[in-house]
């Protein structure tokens, strides 16, 4: 899974949506993606639960205007996913001009003795030209990606996503030596789609919400 932290869609034409968004974007890396340490002189990242000045990405709603760093999106849909007791949400963000990104948000456990933390990933499609996920190393864009996990999750759609109201999605996740994440996903036996993931700090997201 790539730039897109997975994943929402809502348009005048469902055909366009289906062509633009074939599957959710989600990585299930066993090693959690953590916020990088602050540079010297900068304040460390803050916990949105503990700091009321930070917007909590878990509260994004379909219809919200979402700002991710310098980019402005509209949340047009969401997928609520579950697998073996784990839950996460992927929001489909409409950037305009038929451009979409998935934003995935999940509360994940830390290592032993560490508290829960938010994993927020922004996904970007990867043109893999019919490539399918293998159980061994893959080379994409000149980088070697090694498998970390694969499985099947159930999802429920909200808003406009171009996907069924309910269904199953298969995924296969990989990681490169530089930490880049790659994910293949397909919905209910459809065509495999691939994307890269870029981790975001929860504090880099804010929302404008109509009363």
UniProtKB/TrEMBL annotation:
Protein name listed in UniProt: DUF4178 domain-containing protein
Residue stretches of biased makeup (Basic and acidic residues): 44-55
Lineage start: Bacteria, Bacillati, Actinomycetota, Actinomycetes, Streptosporangiales
Pfam family, one: DUF4178
Chain segments carrying region Disordered: 27-55
Span of domain DUF4178: 61-202
InterPro entries: DUF4178
Entry superkingdom: Bacteria
